[in-house]
Amino acid sequence: MTGQKSEGNMGKILIRLVLLIALCQGSIALADSVEAKVEQHGTSKYLEIIGISSKVTDHLLTIHLQIKNKDNGDNRGYYRASWLDESGEPVWDEEAWKPLLLHGNQKMNIKLVAPTTKAKDYKIEFSAEENYRE
Prior knowledge:
Largest sheet: 4 strands, antiparallel
Number of helices: 2
Shape: globular
Helix content: 10-25%
Radius of gyration: 19 Å
Structural class: alpha+beta
């Protein structure tokens, strides 16, 4: 029985080691918390960021956003990224707002790539034309 436990523990250690190496090389996408990474400008009635992840590819931070239109009609929104260093300081000029149009019940995937290798973190700003009144 001890041999089986030892082999099981070795397997777990090997899996952890492989994951650690992959993380260090930036080849695994990390699911980020929408609440932690997105600054909402108003509360959108219909558009929602339902997923966000990031990884480093060729030394550049890459973000993947998934946005969903919860309505049957077309809805417009706007987004932009702030690229930050390890301490949260900006490493690039403020970006212009980028428009998006989602048709009824559509999901959209957006890929953003940092403009500099100095970017180690990010913040997304998001706004929609149709917001709840606050």
